[in-house]
Amino acid sequence: MAYDQSAMNELHWLIDMVQTIEVGLVVLDKNFDIQLWNGFMENHSGVSPNSIKGSNLFEQFDYLPADWLKKKMESVFLLKNRAFISWEQRPYVFKFKNYRPITGRADFMYQNVTLLPLSSLTGQITHISMIVYDVTDVAIHKLQLKAVNERLEHLSQTDGLTQLHNRRYWQICMQKEFDRHARYGDKTSLVMFDIDHFKKVNDTYGHMAGDKVIQHISHLLKQSLRETDCAGRYGGEEFAVVLAKTSAKDALNFAERLRHKIATTELIYEGEPIKVTVSIGISDLQEQIGNSGQWLSFADQALYQAKKAGRNNCVIYKPKT
Ligand SMILES: Nc1nc2c(ncn2[C@@H]2O[C@H](COP(=O)(O)OP(=O)(O)OP(=O)(O)O)[C@@H](O)[C@H]2O)c(=O)[nH]1
């Protein structure tokens, strides 16, 4: 008798805990009809256990990904194993509003869900339980951290004035293209250019105007790029672009178009028109180029030739014979 009483107490407490625990508990039969719906599920869905018991989960909540979820549940019945659904895989299973003040930025509750096989007294798996954990706090913090890291990564790779790649990151991209060429032999060209007589721009219009000119040229450069091109601000008024899958001839066409666009587009700074030109050096990846430093140096030598030849022009590097 005492034993019965203690067992009854235990059962009563357990039921109480199931009802009040801050975790969602649902029991489903093989037809996905709801057999148990605890207080957490009631509080967040607004549907009481009495009104939902016996009804089909997928008819009650028609937004649920039925095919996907049924497949997961059927495998729990069949294999008698647990299955997990993480918020990173699917932010939520049940569309519950998020009321937590700390994580007010989430509109919905992020959830981890465990599907658990439940055996009957005869040892058969006739039901499964869904255990729904509210992981909104963890998810929001993780997402915020990810966003901050992405932002930091972007900042560490980007030139502040032009939003082009900075020199360090551009060199990494250039090295990658060099390695790709060594592996696959694709035609690849490097274009370096420098604003002509830029010191005069600074001296005439001031440093702020000089900065605007650098931004203006970057803008024209960005307009000329393809998705696969890698462009960076190499130095103060010097820019570098790796053109993937591009021969020297095609790189020259690109460079000529850019040079012409820059030479014919004026920037208005405080009512004053400013016009600049650029000199451009090109080096396509040839077999005799042993490393990326040499490739860069050849483009730089071609740029020097372009300056020497009178500026506002493009020169392709020719290996000395
Ligand atoms: N406004 C501004 N000026 C810069 C920046 N970086 C470098 N410069 C200036 O760019 C000028 C480069 O001058 P030089 O290297 O003598 O070359 P240049 O006057 O362009 O002449 P050439 O290259 O020979 O045609 C210097 O006056 C630098 O101060 C920058 O970020 N902003």
TrEMBL record:
Native organism: Shewanella benthica KT99
EC numbers on record: 2.7.7.65
Alphabetized Gene3D superfamilies for the sequence: 3.30.70.270, PAS domain
Cofactor(s), names only, from the UniProt record: Mg(2+)
The protein's name in its UniProt record: diguanylate cyclase
One term under GO cellular component: plasma membrane
Lineage of producing organism: Bacteria, Pseudomonadati, Pseudomonadota, Gammaproteobacteria, Alteromonadales
Residues forming coiled coils: none
UniProt GO molecular function: diguanylate cyclase activity
GO annotation terms (biological process): cell adhesion involved in single-species biofilm formation; negative regulation of bacterial-type flagellum-dependent cell motility
CDD domains in alphabetical order: GGDEF
GGDEF domain location: 186-319
Enzyme class, broadest EC rank: transferase
PANTHER family linked to this entry: DIGUANYLATE CYCLASE DGCM-RELATED, REGULATORY COMPONENTS OF SENSORY TRANSDUCTION SYSTEM
Catalytic activity: 2 GTP = 3',3'-c-di-GMP + 2 diphosphate
